[in-house]
């Protein structure tokens, strides 16, 4: 069932989203060569503490997971697409890093992700990250009353495929509200004019995931959480929580 949020609820979700934005900004600021993924997790955790917010990631255990998630961020590096577990790994020059983060405040959840490059960037990685950001922008632009879920999926997928990138099948965006994952599913590829109609009060996490090598294959790492590209190519992941309103899409996790 898709829950339509009231305007007041959307305002409250915006407050949760701003905690997410502050945390991602803080993580990006300190991420540098030699900094460990666990240190990035602690930076984000401190933002939660300062805001009096909780983590929808910490302890989360969906049906596919062998263990509860042990951190407040997902930290995916290079060929990791999503769901990377923070470890003592220290960032190296040229690493492509994707950070996914959520916050729960006042009973509402915000969810967002960024990709960036540490140190000296590769040209191919810059293009990959820029394309992920363009795909996200295209998906948000399609998130208007009167469109359908398929219009968002088509907008995201068109940008990704036109650039020659792969898209991991079965993973994409979702509804957000009292819980991190709610109905509906928001695929990263689809047919325009199909799927659930978009209505005022729907709140969606739109999240492109791109595989740099151009193939769609991926697999779960031995930790049971991290998804990695089959071809070993690099991946990028971007995301915003977006409210569908009569006046247009409202980005609740804007940084």
Automatic annotation (TrEMBL):
Chain segments annotated as coiled-coil in the UniProt record: none
Binding site for a divalent metal cation 1: 100, 111, 239
Cofactor comment text: Binds 2 divalent metal cations per subunit. Has a high-affinity and a low affinity metal-binding site. The true nature of the physiological cofactor is under debate. The enzyme is active with cobalt, zinc, manganese or divalent iron ions. Most likely, methionine aminopeptidases function as mononuclear Fe(2+)-metalloproteases under physiological conditions, and the catalytically relevant metal-binding site has been assigned to the histidine-containing high-affinity site.
SUPFAM superfamilies, sorted: Creatinase/aminopeptidase (SSF55920)
Keyword set, alphabetical order: Aminopeptidase, Hydrolase, Metal-binding, Protease
Substrates-to-products reaction catalysed: Release of N-terminal amino acids, preferentially methionine, from peptides and arylamides
The keyword Hydrolase belongs to this UniProt entry's keyword annotation: yes
Peptidase M24 domain segment(s): 12-245
InterPro entries documented for this protein: Creatinase/aminopeptidase-like, Pept_M24, Pept_M24_MAP, Pept_M24A_MAP1
Entry keyword Magnesium: no
EC number: 3.4.11.18
Signal peptide span: none
Molecular functions (GO terms): initiator methionyl aminopeptidase activity
Gene3D superfamilies, sorted: Creatinase/methionine aminopeptidase superfamily
Annotated binding of substrate, by residue: 83, 181
Cofactor (UniProt): Co(2+); Zn(2+); Mn(2+); Fe(2+)
Family the entry assigns: Belongs to the peptidase M24A family. Methionine aminopeptidase type 1 subfamily.
NCBIfam families xrefs: met_pdase_I
Record's protein name: Methionine aminopeptidase
Gene name for this UniProt entry: map
